[in-house]
Amino acid sequence: MSTPLPYGSWPSPLTAHAVSAASPRIEGARYVGDEVWWGETVAEEAGRTAVRRRTASGVVSDVIAAPWSARSRVHEYGGGSWTTVGDDALVFVEKVDQRVWKVAGDGAPRPLTPAAGDMRFGGLTWQGGRLLAVREVHGTSPVPHRDIVEIPVDGSAARDASALSSLVEDSHFLAHPVLSPDGSHLAWIAWDHPAMPWDRTELRVGRLEDGVVAEWTTVAGGETAPLQPAWTGEDDLIYADDPTGRWNLWTLRLTADLAHRPVAPADADTGGPLWVLGQRWYAVLGDGRIAAIRTHGSDELVVVDGDEVRPLEFEGVAGLSIEDVRGSRLLVSGAGAAGTALWELDVDDPGSARRIVGGESPWGAEWMPRARPVTFDGPGGPVHAYDYPPTNPDVSAPADEKPPYLVLVHGGPTAHVGGAASGKIAFFTSRGIGVLDVNYGGSSGYGRAYRERLLGRWGVVDVDDVLAAAAGLAEEGVADGERLAIAGGSAGGWTVLCALTLADAFAAGISRYGVADLRRLAEDTHDFEARYLDSMVGPLPQAEALYVARSPLSRLDRLRTPLLIEQGLEDRVVPPSQSEAVRDALKKNGVPHAYLAFEGEGHGFRRSETLVRQLEAEIAFLGGVLGFEPDGVEPLDLD
User: Fold this and answer.
1) Which end of the chain has fewer CB atoms < 10 Å from its terminal CB, N or C?
2) For residues 314 and 388, what is the distance between their CA atoms, to the nearest angstrom?
3) pTM of the predicted model, to two decimals?
4) Which residues, in sequence order, are CB contacts of 138 under 8 Å at separation 6+?
5) Facing residues of 203 across strands?
């Protein structure tokens, strides 16, 4: 029989150290001979991205040892930082110098690209015996030069930069380059400022002469956002696009009439925001069938065979990406009920799916909360969220007490959360604190119309929706309306600061590298997001007054809610000055607060010691403000 204890004070085996170690981020996966290789962040090794291999007998080892780290900084967010050549060679982008390196067998890594200024590579793919990549060169221009290049694998370009062959440029941004089966054409995705890749992109096809694009034409997009082209024949393409308001699959034959045909259309998205290079939402199997991810809040994996669509039942439900295909087998990364994982499954026998790495709770499944999809009425329409109730098999709560809740606001803002619990969520729920994860208007995963609710209204719609979700949960009697806290990072931190300076719904707030000043963000942020605010708020200088009015920095005198601020000191997206301004205002206003600055961290935390300190500080902060004593955690001193 469980013991009744006040919410927030429940003992839990989920220590901050255990959660940090059990939350790997999967960064791509490949079949290599009879092995599986994958990228994985290692928090205990300064957050580096290791590339690991698993043999057919189950032995796991590193392909590149510490301190090597496969991480691209193209578009700052990177992606596609490694791929394989043949059955034993790895090519990868090294985090420190952004050069491409190659390691074969037991040999040492050797460079494939030159040490020439600020040159970055990402989206690496090995196609038709050619190594292709997106190159980004930073110089005196505010807009870096980007092109699709071929990198010789013999190392000649490491000595002579002219050996890098530029296939095509002609736009501010490029992604998803794919060679036709006979190598005569290249298809790719392109877009230009001020559009973001979920607003408007173009699918282009170019004819190759002497290995480079001689001429090209746009075959899809312009007013829509096509993604991830793939060749299914010499003149046939498949790709994702959203002319109907949902990203669905389409086929295209390169004839005079450019006939576009939908493939098994659905009221769900096969596609998403292109924040990182290398994301794959579908794959064509060896027999012509298609494995595809469909998203409406949570993810579903399906197989499309002509007019027949068959769901594949397996545990992955959020953040799914089809990493590689061999015959009818897939490597799929994402998150399930027990956290992030990489799975291998056969589309003809999905019940035999096996975990390659992750996906197992070291403290037992009974400690993981089950996601409850909820929808609330907001001022602009429905607001979608996932409720994770307090969950602890050994403890119950007093009958007359309602739980405190932490309302989570995802970053982006063009992103979304699926219905999969994580160790970080269970860290709170196992201690008796509920978690409400909100997909406010502007989130992806529910179609273009839901996504575009935020256009011109960032700092309004997101705040209204988060307030509506929090109030709705309290009105249901699920949460204690007097003990609601709000937390978010980056764009989510912006919504936290906006909510705390516009309303008094929350008793505490946690801002992780949150945006406080829109004008400063527009001046300081990197090129990929340099014009993001044009659509989210308005173009400068015309909308400058709106930038000032919307920014929490303009009303910090109204910030009276206890706040925990967490900031990476190497953050290039939201520099520390923004968090420091909020800290100074809290001190001036006499509001209890704590400011945690982390050396060696950028936009998002990766190091084990940071993740541990973050979780322990957050639970201690909530306990101190909301009035409970967390088990096994030292109090946090507030200024």
Assistant:
1) N
2) 21
3) 0.95
4) 117, 118, 119, 120, 144
5) 189, 220
